Amino acid sequence: MTAQTLTKDAPIAAVEKSALSIIDYSLAYKTANGLIPALQNIDLTIPKGKTVGLVGESGSGKSSMAWSIMRYLPSNAVETGGAIRLAGEELLDYTPYQMMDIRGRRMSMVFQDPSTSLNPTIKLGEQIAEVLMRHRGLTKAQAWAEAEAALGRTGITRPKEMLQRFPHEASGGEKQRVVIATAFACEPELIIFDEPTTALDILTARQILDLFNQLREETNVSALYISHDLGLVSRVVDRVSVIHKGIIVESGSVQEVFRRPKADYTRQLIGAVPDPDRWVGVDAPGEPKTLLRIDKVGVRYGAPTKLQAMFWPTDAETVGFWGAKDISIDVRKGELLGVVGESGSGKSTIAKVLAGLQDFEGKLDFDGKAITSRNAIDRAYRRRVQIVFQHPDASLNPRHRIGTIIARPLKLYGIVPKHEIKARVAELLEMVRLPASYADRLPHQLSGGEKQRVAIARAFAAEPELVICDEVTAALDVSVQAAVAELLVKLQRNTGAACVFITHDLNLIRQLAHRIAVMHHGKLVDFFDRVDARSVDRDPYAKALLDAVPVHAGEPEA
Amino acid sequence: MRNFFSTPTAIVGTALLSVVCFAAIFGPWIAPYDPQAFDPLNRLQGPSPAHWFGTDQFGRDLLSRILNGAPSTVTFGVGATLIGVGIGSIIGVVAGVSGGWADSTIMRILDGLLAVPDLLFTLLIVTIFGGGMEHAMLAVAIAFAPGMARIARSAVLSVRTRDYVRAAVARGESGFYIVGAEVLPNALSPIVVEATIRVSFAIMIGATLGFLGLGAQPPSTEWGLMVAEARQFMFRNPWCVAVPGLSIAIAALGFNLFGDALRDSLDPKRSHG
Fold first, then answer.
1. Superkingdom of this entry's organism (chain B) (predicted)?
2. DSSP H helices in A339-420
3. Beta strands in A145-186 (DSSP E)
4. Among A72, A100, B16, B153, which has the highest number of CB atoms less than 10 A from its own CB?
């Protein structure tokens, strides 16, 4: 199959002209359990001036591919064959010393997280100028002038000031612009983008994507765009390759792959991308009854101590900052309430308040009982309100077996008699579609999605009336995300529990939630029924968020 | 844990440690001579078929003395560490779990104690308690406690903010359950590793105290004391200083390398490979 695509799509002459051609390349890692293949018979061609997307889930080998091209592999990597050619030159033959000249000048890379890819102790200007001096032989003054121009091209309003700043003085989006400016600085033939927007907020990510498209047109650079997000890739690349377990399962033009996927895996991946217009949630509760209401709830981090309040009452008003302020939301019985916002918007703070993990000001009204402080939250409340955390690796005690973990709420709240615990655990495991034999396993023997199912089973073991899901799908792969969301809906349908679903994924929440609350900088900016998502009286910020969401794969951009 | 023996550190450490432990357990029985028997005719001899490691200033067989001294030396190291780790861990866990002003108070006091070098601190305690093996052991244990408390506290703190602990809090678990079942088992490995490494320091401090005449008293076969007693005869027979000195080095190195290897294999980042 691989040989076919090569001859059909790219005759030998085109291979010579292409910016990058990878031919029948294989890579394996040497581990204690022998040689583990990471990439197998990869064929990938990036024509000059084109962008090719490489899409795959975590562990698919897409990052290994990036490092193979950059010739920066760990010492236990074994290349078992094939060729990687940059403009016809064989990179595999170059010595590490020769590669130093090529990296940065002829190929460069943009990483996922701009906060870790920039050196925190060096000014941003110096970090760009350094590359220019090293590869283009400019003097310091020339390099700084050139750096300013490069930053200006990335849409930073005051590039001169930005050059003088340190990384911590710039926002995530600004930092990523600096990284991109550095990558484009030497006008390389090829740039590798390794999930450049994953660590950024939706709105910033959207801007970075627009910037990427603009720079691509201006410079006519060839690029490899690596991502797990199909919707996003579909709007920036010309051709796309789908990689699964180290094998490219499908390649073709964007339209072709998304409209008429050939491989089963691609079809599965496309099906898993949340589509805001496809409703999968439970039916809305017939007659709305309020289960929980929070009234003007606020959380202040770094609140003044008693001493401060006593002696410096004026200062005490201003110290610390409000993680959330004046939030009033109500949750109805049996509904799914979506809380959306960017990182730092205070949405997780609200989750912590509801779960009784955070001190708060204001009033919390649960089923007719008013609670005004965290200490007033009793065990009965804690049983009826359960929380599922974002990272399944962190939320299960690594030393407890799955059976012990799920049985704990049963024992603690005395939900079933002692001799029935084992049977109930098996039942709960089955409810989240895991085999009963998993009860004897330890968390590290499970995959991320399976662990999240265990965490969900533990929450539902308490037979709660409200389940708080704090970004439960954010740490999971796309295809697993869909399955977990679907499972949650099924459990909700069977148990009638209400759910507060906290997320930054607007497409997903519009599939699930009856009502959506939008948070920004610790404040509730909008609260609406899902059917009104597109109505004109939406808050401008909510509107911007909805507009920034990547268009669904394959559909023409609006 | 599976690949514990994959590094040279682990192999060498375990080998040295087994030699030392073997000597500590069976030493007194396999010693060829009475460790206290004088033999004036064969004083200060080098290694020979009759005396494998030579003899000391009274003609006593060095091998027998080393083998006889092994149990007390190892017991001293392990015992002092165990007591020190016990005291330190309790303080550290209490500080880490309670947090707030209790934590600050305890840690500031410990910081003050940590500013005094281990050996000096031990000497200070020995001068208060008086010399002798038991007192020296207690002194080393007390000197170790602040450092161990710091490690225990940091282990507890790093575990305390994990989601599974927060999940337990959200469930309404009792504080006792949270500490006992969720926090402690996960905070234990750094404590165990540090303890193993500290045994080597305890052995060395014990030997130093013996050398200074503040630990074991003659005619004990404690290794540090043996070095001190043989010092005058160092130039006539270097063996009587080198043999106990090397024994101390081997015991300390064995515990140290073993501890290092243990840390590497318990480190989740490495063991998942």
1. Bacteria
2. 347-354, 379-384, 392-395, 402-412
3. none
4. B153
